[in-house]
């Protein structure tokens, strides 16, 4: 029994000596025996406190795949994501601005028709001028005039009425909005079986759904009119 106890004590002592040797060897390599091997230069700097000095070659983990090329690729991907976010923000800002212009245009025409006004004045923009030109061609308004003033130019819209005194525009409603932009392709369906029109913003400019089908183009549906 005494022999077994002595043997066990010697084994424990040997085990402790072995652990000390392993720890000493590990410290020479640059990490503690009980810790995981450092994976990055930053971890090595934190463990050995080189304070920005060049890390000795023996402490650098050769298995770490952070080469200069890999780092440059990571930086490039980060820049691309920043540029993509900036592009998205610009497009969203333009979409909101465009939606505001169209909403104001539609509301002014609708309110003037309900009030049976002969004309209505709308602040000028190129998009509003193009929309007005299209509505004149399709017979929804009589005419429009661009009037320049010292402060700002504006459009004067001459509204059109039937012989009974009803507005020629029975309905004019927004379709695409900043929170829900609506697009359609060249096979866009007719509105009310062709009695009304969808007005689109396309690569060909501001066109109707009929023109979109004829030209084989699609676009963003701004509003519908009947």
Throw out a few tags for this protein.
226 residues, alpha+beta, three-stranded antiparallel β-sheet, 5 helices, 8 strands
Tell me what you see in this structure.
The protein has five helices and eight strands. With 226 residues, the protein is α+β, with helices and mostly antiparallel strands. Strands 4, 5, 6, 7 and 8 form a five-stranded antiparallel sheet that branches. Strand 2 and strand 3 (154-159) form a beta hairpin. It is elongated, with a radius of gyration of 37 Å. The N and C termini lie far apart (107 Å).
In a nutshell, what does this entry contain?
The protein is an alpha+beta fold and 226 residues long.
**Terminal CA distance:** 107 Å
Number of helices: 5
Q: Radius of gyration over alpha carbons?
A: 37 Å
The helix content, as a percent range, equals: 40-55%
Helix/strand class: alpha+beta
- Mean residue pLDDT: 76
Largest sheet: 5 strands, antiparallel
Q: What is the overall silhouette? A: elongated
Strand fraction: 15-25%
């Amino acid at each position: 029994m005494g022999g077994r106890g002595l043997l066990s004590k010697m084994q424990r002592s040997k085990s402790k000596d072995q652990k000390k040797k392993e720890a000493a060897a590990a410290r020479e390599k640059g990490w503690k025996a009980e810790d995981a091997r450092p994976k990055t230069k930053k971890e090595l700097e934190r463990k050995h406190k080189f304070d920005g000095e060049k890390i000795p070659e023996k402490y650098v983990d050769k298995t770490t795949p952070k080469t200069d090329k890999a780092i440059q690729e990571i930086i490039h991907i980060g820049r691309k994501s920043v540029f993509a976010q900036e592009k998205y923000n610009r497009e969203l800002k333009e979409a909101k601005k465009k939606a505001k212009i169209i909403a104001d245009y539609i509301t002014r025409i609708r309110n003037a028709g309900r009030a049976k006004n002969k004309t209505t004045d709308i602040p000028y923009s190129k998009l509003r001028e193009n929309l007005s030109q299209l509505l004149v061609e399709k017979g929804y308004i009589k005419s429009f005039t661009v009037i320049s003033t010292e402060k700002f130019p504006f459009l004067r819209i001459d509204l059109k009425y039937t012989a009974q005194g009803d507005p020629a525009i029975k309905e004019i409603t927004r379709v695409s909005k900043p929170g829900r932009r609506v697009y359609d392709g060249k096979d866009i369906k007719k509105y009310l079986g062709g009695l009304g029109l969808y007005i689109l913003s396309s690569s060909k400019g501001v066109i109707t759904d009929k023109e979109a089908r004829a030209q084989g183009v699609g676009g963003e549906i701004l509003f519908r009119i009947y």
